[in-house]
Specification:
mainly alpha; 49% helix
Length: 136
């Protein structure tokens, strides 16, 4: 039998929080925020925009060649929409790329982001040193 009111939703957190937000779980010491993992649509959009600008082409020109609307292409470039593989292939073709080329360039961006993220983790001060640099 449920104890909640009939019109109230029960929220179940996907990741239970084990320590207060902004702390590392040790003495309440704030931990620097880790860079967010990029979304695939953001990476693909960045590649589309970068390739279009490198070719000095307009949104209108590429959208017409790809046979998609200009506002939709703009939203793809800004990472606001998830495109189907057919739309991505059409946009890539309009830029003189294959779908594999587009996805490979997006993967390169993801690898670059992952490397910078691990470098950030290695250089972030740990709670044990309280942010002080201890030289040997």
């Amino acid at each position: 039998m449920s104890t909640q009111a009939p019109n109230e939703a029960r929220v179940i957190p996907l990741r239970p929080q084990t320590s207060p937000p902004g702390s590392d779980g040790r003495n309440g010491t704030p931990q620097p925020p880790a860079p967010k993992e990029p979304l695939w649509r953001d990476l693909v959009g960045d590649v589309l925009r970068r390739e279009r600008l490198a070719q000095e082409r307009t949104l209108k020109d590429v959208a017409e060649e790809a046979r998609i609307s200009m506002p939709y292409l703009s939203e793809l470039e800004r990472g606001r929409k998830e495109a189907s593989s057919e739309v991505l292939a059409a946009a890539a073709r309009a830029l003189g790329l294959g779908l594999g080329d587009l996805l490979s360039l997006a993967q390169d961006e993801l690898v670059r982001h992952t490397r910078s993220r691990s470098a950030h983790r290695r250089t972030a001060p740990s709670a044990r040193t309280n942010g002080l640099c201890l030289a040997a």
